[in-house]
Amino acid sequence: MKTLQELTAIKEAMRAEMALRLGEVADGAKYEKHVLMCGGTGCTSSGSMKIADELEKLLKENNIDEKVFVVRTGCFGLCERGPIMIVYPEGSFYTHVKMEMIPRIVEEHLIGGKPVKEFLYDETVTEGSDEIKSLNETTFYAKQHRVALRNCGLINPENIDEYIARDGYAALNKVLTSMTPEEVIQEILDSGLRGRGGGGFPTGMKWKLARNIVPDADIKYVCCNADEGDPGAFMDRSVLEGDPHVVLEAMTIAGYAIGACQGYIYVRAEYPIAVERLRIAIKQAREAGMLGKDIFGTGFDFDIDLRLGAGAFVCGEETALMTSIEGNRGEPRPRPPFPAEKGLYQKPTILNNVETYANVPQIILKGAKWYSSMGKDNSKGTKVFALGGKIKNTGLVEVPMGTTLREIIEEIGGGIPNGKKFKAAQAGGPSGGCIPVQHYDVNVDYDSLAAIGCMIGSGGLIVLDEDNCMVDIAKFFLQFTMDESCGKCTPCRIGTKRLYEILDKITNGNGTMEDLDKLEELCQYIKANSLCGLGQTAPNPVLSTLRFFRDEYVAHIVDKKCPAGVCKSLLTFVIDKEKCIGCGMCAKQCPASAIERTDYTAPGHKLASFAIDASKCVKCGACMSQCKFKAISKQ
Amino acid sequence: MSDMINVKINGFAVSVPKGSTVLEAARAAGVIIPTLCYLKDINEIGACRMCVVEAQEMRGPALGPKRIVAACVYPVSEGMEVFTNSPKVLDSRRKTMQLLLSNHDMKCLSCVRSKNCELQQLAHDLGITDADVYAGSRTEYPIDDSAAHMYRDNNKCILCRRCVAACAVTQGIGVIGANERGFITNIGSQYNKGLGETSCVSCGQCITVCPTGAISEKDFTDKVFEAIADPTKHVIVQTAPSVRAGLGEMFGLPIGTNVEGKMVAALRRLGFDHVFDTNFSADLTIMEEATELIERVSNGGVLPMITSCSPGWVKFCEHYFPDMIPNLSTCKSPQQMLGAVIKTYYAQKMGWDPKDIVSVAIMPCTAKKFEIGRPDQSAAGVPDVDIALTTRELGRMIDRAGIEFNALPDEKFDDPLGIFTGGGLIFGATGGVMEAALRYAVEKLSGEKLTGDAIDFKEVRGTEAIKEATYTAGGVTVKVAVVSGLANARKLLEKVRAGEADYTFIEVMACPGGCVNGGGQPIQPASVRNFTDIRALRAKALYDADAKMELRKSQDNPMIQTLYKEFFGEPGSHKAHEILHTSYVARGVHKI
Amino acid sequence: MAKKIATIPFTGTAEQEQELRATIDALRDDPGCLMPVMQKAQEIYGYLPIEVQTIIADELNIPLEKVFGVATFYAQFTMSPKGKYRISVCLGTACYVKGSGIVMEKLEEALGIESGEITQDGKFSLDDCRCVGACGLAPVVTVNDDVYGRLTGSLKEVQDILAKYAD
Lengths: 635, 592, 167
Ligand SMILES: Cc1cc2nc3c(=O)[nH]c(=O)nc-3n(C[C@H](O)[C@H](O)[C@H](O)COP(=O)(O)O)c2cc1C
Ligand code: SF4
Ligand code: SF4
Ligand code: SF4
Ligand code: SF4
Ligand code: SF4
Ligand code: SF4
Ligand code: SF4
Ligand code: SF4
Ligand code: FES
Ligand code: FES
Ligand code: FES
Known about the structure:
The structure holds three protein chains of three kinds.
Chain A: H1 4-22, E1 33-38, H2 41-45, H3 48-61, E2 68-73, E3 85-88, E4 92-94, H4 102-111, H5 139-142, H6 160-165, H7 170-178, H8 181-191, H9 203-212, E5 221-226, H10 235-242, H11 244-258, E6 262-268, H12 272-287, E7 292-295, E8 300-309, H13 318-325, E9 349-353, H14 354-366, H15 368-372, E10 375-376, E11 379-380, E12 382-389, E13 395-400, H16 405-412, E14 422-427, E15 433-436, H17 446-451, E16 460-465, H18 470-484, H19 490-493, H20 495-507, H21 513-529, H22 533-537, H23 540-548, H24 550-559, E17 573-575, H25 585-589, E18 595-599, E19 608-612, H26 622-626, E20 632-634
Parallel strand pairs in A: 1-2, 5-6, 5-9, 6-8, 12-16
Antiparallel strand pairs in A: 1-3, 3-4, 7-8, 10-11, 12-13, 14-15, 14-16, 17-20, 18-19
Chain B: E1 4-9, E2 12-17, H1 22-28, E3 52-56, E4 58-59, E5 62-63, E6 67-70, E7 81-83, H2 87-102, H3 118-125, E8 150-152, H4 162-170, E9 177-179, E10 186-188, H5 205-209, E11 215-217, H6 221-229, E12 234-239, H7 243-246, H8 260-270, E13 274-277, H9 278-299, E14 305-306, H10 311-320, H11 334-350, E15 357-363, H12 367-371, E16 387-390, H13 391-400, H14 422-425, H15 432-446, E17 466-473, E18 476-484, H16 486-497, E19 505-509, H17 526-529, H18 534-548, H19 558-568, H20 574-580
Helix pairs in contact in B: 9-11, 9-15
Chain C: H1 14-27, H2 34-45, H3 50-60, H4 64-73, E1 85-90, H5 93-96, H6 100-111, E2 124-129, E3 141-143, E4 146-148, H7 155-163
Parallel strand pairs in C: 1-2
Antiparallel strand pairs in C: 1-3, 3-4
């Protein structure tokens, strides 16, 4: 493919089919129905691909495989309800799809034309009415605004033509045929796009530096950070799984802008589906002439290779990532020199995050003005969040920057399950902090979160409820950063270990109030003195919990109590003699043989009850979950 | 645009070349910033964070906020203001030190580096009053004593990685490196094997750059004291050329002070029965080696011939270039030659049983500790040399014996094996062996006496990595190369191996700059190493002494002439081969 | 925790070695090929014993210590073979706040080994991992390619899972 005409031809050919999915009128569509089956990691984990196979088998058996087209897509976002399946043109949204449901869906819906109401997402059906609401009317989707995720859950990520049908590679064409590199950079600058990998550095600025700082550079590189190390975040994975070509297109545009002709995507090896889809996408893009020599006949060459990360969080840090691509231990290098000047193999290099790239083609096509009309102040555009933890709708959401936390959690996320209370949201993972309930209405954007000592980070948003202990959470993150420290510099290598030890001491009930001062001092020191971002941000979870939940620390230290009932050393399990009926089930379960029968002779009571020997109890909680009479509690 | 950058260090203006680091700018302003991990050009990794300062840079028209930066790697920028000594800086450095100490085996009283330990010095300078504030769990390691020449004690390692850089960058070897990550990161070898099981070449370059007592030479001084006290033993000592150029540093003398006379006096006072000079056997080496070269050139032997006097280099060749073993001269090193002569010729002359001789060598070198145990190094059926000590160990012996070194008179080596020429003396510097060989070969080939300036072959002097020169004498053209530092050697040898170089004779010294910078020489802290070329200063001591010598060509050494007359016959004779030459072992890179 | 190094004898076959050497030949021109080579080697052998690391070092002409340094740096590389069934408990944030730590304890109890170890019979190995990307199913445990989500953390539950791998 060498020309815009050829690209348009592919697009036109696919359009009719795509129209069906977009709820548009479609002339000449080959299929009558499209069944979109989520092939994201979440849904695949619960068997969605086997269900899709079964579905295709049944379609064949019923001779409607010529009429119904099964598409395996990327993540729809509402992973909590997975496996998810959508049938177009109706837009019927089936959730928690199981193998057993398929025959009925085929028979009643795909053949009979009537959606199986009881399998549909509850929010889309109304009691006593046949009307089915569209997805966009559900609370989960209503407030979302999909830019980076626009193709996720809509196209087959393994088919470049479907991407092209959605204007794919049109931005690349535009850039190569009608814009100078400077114009491209200016457009990105004007859009206000900032890095979505956590740092928030203006993307256009980064490109500009890389273009100009070493005027006579012979080789430059474009890298994509798909390491997504924040445990509990899966924005980038979802983009790669659902829309891999967008990253390839954007990297090629970046290559043109800075004057590079080689790109690397550094992707986590733990993301097998993403890796596979990227491999397919790169192959297809090469075959289609979108990667390789003389793209669109413009003489511009660009190619992309994959590099698999091998399980080191620090490799998300830019210099470590480059050191790792070079085949070394992924240890960060001092900056300056910055990668724009001396990056991969000491050549000028840019590194951007997956989601950052996912915005680029749209900015080129629709213009900087359009993009900067979304968002708030210095935070333009949208942001994808991975909602997790104690929230109903765990999954992936994309909202304009500046949406309030409450909206995200209560409306889109559906609030906290089990009637529990919101305690805090943890944003930015091990580098971030927590947002307590008093800031529930904070605008989620770079500056507003920074103002309360927190950060957007890469987009992981973990909701915590009253059952979570904040000291324990801080300790959890410290354990993480301590394990993931590369070990190069002193403040981080030894400092995080000592921080962890102090937190451990506190959660074991051995902390002192002086330890809190020591903790805070050490945190400030590690932030200021560490070599790279990992160490510089590692204390954030501690500092932010100390700031908002100091009382919980104090409770552990002074009262020797864990208010949330999490820290084991501070717990005691007790049997309420009044409630215990003496069935003995708890004693059977106890792994430590800590529960024994005691004679109980108070007048008017049964003869025996059971009691826990605190010195033997290992606090596993088995007894408590075993007792049908709710006679056991932890204090 | 000017190539100078104006900055302020603690309020004092200074102008430094563009590309300078804050550390260098501060030095230019007379301010020393403490460092631990930084070694100029070799280890610029910004890891220890001891060198932090507060810096403000221009942000547009005004100064930006004060930030903590690592001075050793942070480049200066126009208008920058640096504070090297603020309370915040001091607090940061103290905490860094306290954290390091929290995972450090603080056993200064039994540590070989006490008084010469950069960590200890810094803890003192920082005014650490509480070394245990951050006491917590520690990583504990067994001491690695598997190598012939050194110990590694990770319990004292601060992970500055200077040794790693010395081994991998300077020497191009890389048998030690960082393993694991996070708190348990440690320096070690593959599969946590002992250094003795790796292809470490024993050069000791790692030791001389280590700021702490985590790596040190194996100390055999007690064995020497015992031998001296044993009335049944003849304890004979020899000292290598470079020792006299380094030993003074152990007693606070300026780098490059030649302490030959005091050294001899000290050795006598230590109780050695005879004090001989390796310079003598360096002259002997020249006779044998140059003869071997002329022989190879005229009889179509394997060329280029490569020197074999550096055991670090020899081991390197056996591990990494086993195919080039035939290129190695078969001459033993001067240390081994003198040892062999002492236990054959001299024992015979004195009527001693070689078994009753304890032959001690004082060397700038740790590889010599390995060399004495090599096969085919026992001319008299007993090891040619029994104990090889480093310059540092000699310094410690002198201290222990209570000898007031700086007050000693200058004394002379004993006859007959203490007589030497300038040719032997300059063996200690890179190019020295080559120059001494040229002084002999050119004279021999041309048949004319070299006099005056013609004795100096300045092209092969100096500390550059690789030096080349071509000489024609008596119709024969020899193309020579001199290389020091094994990373450089590797480059040169790869060219030779690939047939891209047509040298006749190559001098290789394992240590950059030659033995004056050997792994057994006194340790200078990085604060000195980073700003002084200690190799050049020590080498100068040797060249200055050479220039003043009456006898400057090995072949003019009267005792050498006697030795051949009385014992070996002529250079390259059968007897000389049996006693003064050796063989090599192809070792390969990895053994599992 | 330091990487465990297995002491069992090396049982690599000639075919495996041939495949490894072919991989190296295909990749050696890329200056950054060490990790891809090691990843492939681990795929071939299941782990990276010293024999395999030595082949890599020799072929790529780099110090063996460098290979070992890389192997001990990245979590993915292992120097002890894994079980027939590789159990992995997600300790990512989303899973942790929903109690995956307890699931881990139960598995350790049920298997009688600790994370990072392998059962005597070589059947199960237990490890922890960070976020497998199925946070919607938190807490999550994977056994080879099977994913178990929404676990409650009871001993019975993990015993039931283990029972599925009775062969
Ligand atoms: C310890 C650490 C881990 C990081 N991990 C990631 C990551 O997983 N993904 C990512 O895109 N950026 C990560 N970053 C940020 C990157 O270093 C870098 O700033 C980013 O990829 C640049 O792209 P952007 O400007 O598009 O955000 C990490 C930074 C640090 C310090
Ligand atoms: S801050 Fe931590 S991760 Fe970063 S270089 Fe230092 S030790 Fe390594
Ligand atoms: S299970 Fe409950 S009721 Fe039964 S013995 Fe235990 S505490 Fe009593
Ligand atoms: S918590 Fe566990 S150990 Fe303690 S009594 Fe209950 S079952 Fe036994
Ligand atoms: S290494 Fe230095 S600080 Fe450590 S014990 Fe030895 S002398 Fe003391
Ligand atoms: S310096 Fe201090 S600790 Fe060391 S020996 Fe002297 S008194 Fe003791
Ligand atoms: S002695 Fe030389 S080869 Fe051996 S570890 Fe030290 S620097 Fe490397
Ligand atoms: S052994 Fe010495 S030089 Fe090497 S890292 Fe440790 S302290 Fe530094
Ligand atoms: S150069 Fe000198 S000090 Fe270094 S290994 Fe060789 S002989 Fe020893
Ligand atoms: S993975 Fe299927 S909806 Fe997210
Ligand atoms: S960081 Fe500068 S000397 Fe170590
Ligand atoms: S945190 Fe466990 S799957 Fe993401």
